[in-house]
Design brief:
Layout lengths: L1 H12 L8 H8 L4 H6 L6 H6 L3 H4 L1 E3 L8 H11 L5 E3 L22 E3 L7 H8 L7 E6 L10 H9 L2 E6 L15 E6 L30 E6 L3 H16 L7 E5 L8 H13 L1 E6 L2 H4 L4 H4 L1 E9 L7 H8 L11 E3 L22 H10 L5 E3 L15 H5 L7 E5 L6 H6 L27 H7 L5 H8 L5 E5 L29 H6 L8 E5 L8 H9 L5 E5 L10 H8 L7 E5 L4 E2 L1 H7 L7 E5 L4 E2 L1 H10 L5 E6 L3 H15 L7 E6 L5 H5 L4 H8 L15
Parallel strand pairs: 1-2, 2-3, 3-4, 4-5, 5-6, 6-7, 7-8, 8-9, 9-10, 10-11, 11-12, 12-13, 13-14, 14-15, 15-16, 16-17, 17-19, 18-20, 19-21, 21-22
Helix pairs in contact: 7-8, 9-10, 20-21, 21-22, 22-23, 23-24
Length: 706
């Protein structure tokens, strides 16, 4: 009785949530999905009924990753608060039927609307936009069958007032661009395939009736991202043709992201010459063929640049400093810089230099001093080897960038020079990567705590010091300079990979353990770290990095055996906030023990496993899906037979689709000839964010779209 009395007294003296001020409660409620606020929380009591309808909570409605929302919830939501919504983001809601869009017409006061990844026909778009007279920002997809002639005059009147447009093209078309006569920001994503499903070659010519000319006179931002394929290049040239005739005077951001070779033409050369004469830019990204060997950068003028991308260009460090950073002058406005694949960017010249030669630390130092406010820096896909000069290691220089939030580095750039030089050639990591030494099962072969790990490699290493200095880093990518994913985009799976850089041979468990110092780390990518022997550093990360949401591991250790499996399973038991997990490793065994450990990740939403000759246990996968209720994406590309894969995929869909409307399951043999046909049906949100491997640091300017 005394114990019960004490507990009741504590409860009576405790703080009641409803006693908090309205301001504090509103802040708490801002973390709750809008559908839960309006459809559930609002019905609990009178006070919350009032607060849940506060303008600060209903002004902007984000449904883009609310995987539990369905058509009925959207209908009820629009009915209850439609008139109060000014910004609505439904990007990537691929599971909602197209009829769901009809309910958006209740949002009469909408100013911003994002429907990227949603199923919208020309007629539905016309009907919806005809009622949204206040709309100023729009994002849509243009799919095969889109017909601009079906847009009503009321719809075109709305589009004429739109100043921001994001358009993803799956078919050659201008989309709604010609109707948007007041455009200031235009974002174009070209995802057109070269072949139809029937195998016919597609043409980049626009459909009949789409000869209207886009209106760019007020354009301030032009951005185009191209998927691989010549059709995408043909179509983007049609969009650029108008720009080449007359360059907008207010243009301050011009960005084109194009993989592979995208040749410069007379029209594009005229456009760049016009830009050099008439505009001052704040953001720039161009295809490598447009920059390589030209004096373009010498003539372009910049105002207060915040984003540069010279990805895959042969730009030398000398040109970078002289033509972009103005000889090392103050460039504090620059917050994002992408030098991925720019192999000579830290060398004075590129004419007689080999890609593996040491960098010139003075160039990097000039970059760090001039761009001291950098928040996003990508130096991946290149050999950035530091010399033996004391104090001039790449990691030591980067440690001065105290504002960094995201960083991408090649594996060979983080090794201590002395360690890589003194390492004898007989070390285990230099064994051919097709074979691996057997590890006794059931015995933990890695240190159990951070202190033991530190004893193996002293904490004075340059990478350890770098991680200690970047305390607020949220995204980190350490990727082998010769790494290429086995997962294809528009081509068959890659069967062979290049060996890692010689300088990278010493990078292993102790470097991974150093990452555990990043308390606020949210996204981590590790690829082609050859000296991973046990994966012990992963356990440290799981224990210390409690905010980790995205984890991508690829080709760690020797390729003939998954040597880090035991450590990975221990790590996963601590990752309570993990939402996205991508694993790419040959011979990966997705068995009962692995999925039992993964079940501890209660927040997990998306899983992707890519494994040549990998195996899986169907019963274990089913048990995992049943226990992890938040999982809505399961992609597994393994070495199993087509029959096994299809049966498992059908079982998952049949068992869980009704409860999880957004469920997307793809289980398929990695080396099957029809893999590319399967990939094209994956929702773009998952394909772009997790299924395909790529470096994402500084991939786009920050805050490019809301």
């Amino acid at each position: 009785q005394e114990v019960v009395g004490e507990e009741s007294e504590e409860e009576s003296n405790g703080v009641n949530l409803m006693e908090f001020s309205d301001e504090i409660l509103l802040h708490i409620l801002s973390y709750v999905p809008c559908t839960d606020l309006v459809l559930n929380v609002r019905r609990t009591c009178r006070k919350l009924a009032t607060l849940c309808l506060d303008k600060s909570l209903t002004h902007t409605v984000l449904l883009q990753k609310d995987y539990k929302v369905n058509k009925d919830k959207v209908k009820q939501l629009m009915r209850d608060i439609g008139k109060e919504i000014y910004q609505l983001n439904m990007a990537g809601c691929y599971w909602l039927p197209s009829s769901t869009i009809d309910h958006v017409t209740r949002c009469k006061n909408l100013v911003k609307l994002n429907l990227s990844g949603c199923h919208v026909t020309s007629l539905r778009l016309s009907k919806m936009l005809s009622t949204l007279q206040h709309l100023r920002s729009l994002a849509i997809d243009v799919n095969p069958g889109f017909d601009a002639s079906q847009l009503s005059s009321e719809c075109k009147a709305t589009l004429s007032r739109v100043s921001e447009l994001k358009q993803t093209l799956y078919t050659p078309s201008y989309g709604v661009v010609p109707c948007c006569t007041s455009l200031e920001k235009l974002l174009l994503y070209f995802e057109i395939l070269d072949r139809s499903r029937e195998g016919f070659m597609l043409s980049g010519q626009l459909m009949v009736g789409e000869s209207n000319v886009p209106h760019y006179q007020n354009l301030r931002i032009f951005y185009a991202r191209l998927a691989p394929g010549y059709v995408n290049q043909e179509v983007v040239r049609l969009y650029l043709a108008v720009l080449s005739d007359r360059t907008p005077e207010n243009l301050h951001a011009f960005l084109i992201s194009a993989p592979g070779s995208f040749a410069e033409t007379g029209a594009t050369k005229n456009l760049l010459d016009s830009m050099a004469r008439n505009v001052r830019l704040d953001a720039l990204q161009l295809p490598k063929a447009w920059i390589n060997g030209s004096g373009l950068l010498q003539h372009l003028k910049f105002n207060n640049p915040f984003y540069f991308s010279f990805s895959r260009c042969t730009l030398s460090g000398g040109h970078l400093i002289q033509r972009v950073i103005n000889g090392g002058k103050d460039l504090k406005s620059l917050t994002s810089l992408n030098l991925s694949g720019c192999v000579h960017c830290l060398a004075p010249e590129s004419l007689f230099r080999k890609a593996e030669d040491d960098i010139d630390s003075s160039i990097l130092e000039s970059l760090v001093v001039s761009c001291c406010n950098l928040r996003h820096l990508n130096l991946s896909a290149a050999h950035h080897h530091s010399s033996e000069s004391i104090g001039n290691h790449l990691c030591q220089l980067l440690s001065r960038l105290k504002h960094l939030l995201s960083l991408a580095l090649p594996v060979c750039s983080i090794t201590d020079v002395a360690a890589s030089v003194e390492k004898p050639p007989s070390t285990p990591n230099l064994v051919p990567q097709t074979f691996g030494r057997k590890v006794r099962i059931g015995i933990q072969t890695y240190p159990r705590n951070l202190g033991d790990q530190a004893n193996q490699k002293i904490e004075s290493s340059v990478f350890w010091a770098l991680m200690g200095s970047l305390r607020f880093l949220e995204t980190l990518e350490i990727i082998g300079s010769s790494f290429s994913s086995a997962m294809p985009r528009n081509e068959p799976a890659i069967r062979n990979s290049l060996p890692p850089c010689v300088r990278a041979q010493s990078v292993g468990d102790s470097e991974v353990a150093a990452i555990s110092q990043l308390t606020y780390l949210q996204s981590l990518t590790l690829a082609q770290l050859p000296n991973i022997l046990t994966g012990s550093g992963l356990v440290n990360i799981g224990l210390q990095c409690q905010h980790l949401r995205t984890l991508s591991l690829a080709n760690l250790g020797m390729m003939g055996k998954v040597v880090y499996m035991s450590a990975l399973m221990d790590m996963l038991k601590h990752c309570k906030c993990l939402r996205d997990l991508r694993l790419e490793q040959p011979y990966f065994c997705a068995g009962a023990q692995f999925f039992q450990a993964l079940s501890h990740c209660s927040s997990l939403q998306r899983l992707c496993i890519v494994s040549r000759s990998g195996t899986l246990q169907s019963d274990a996968v089913m048990s995992f899906m049943a226990s992890c209720l938040e999982v809505i994406m399961c992609h597994m590309f393994m070495g199993e037979s087509l029959t096994v894969c299809k049966n498992l995929q059908q079982s998952i869909v049949r068992s869980f689709q009704a409860e999880r409307p957004a469920l997307n399951v793809v289980i398929f043999p990695l080396l099957h000839e029809d893999l590319t046909e399967v990939i094209r049906d994956v929702p773009m949100r998952h394909l772009d964010e997790i299924t395909l491997f790529k470096s994402r640091v500084a991939e786009e300017p920050p805050n490019l779209w809301w």
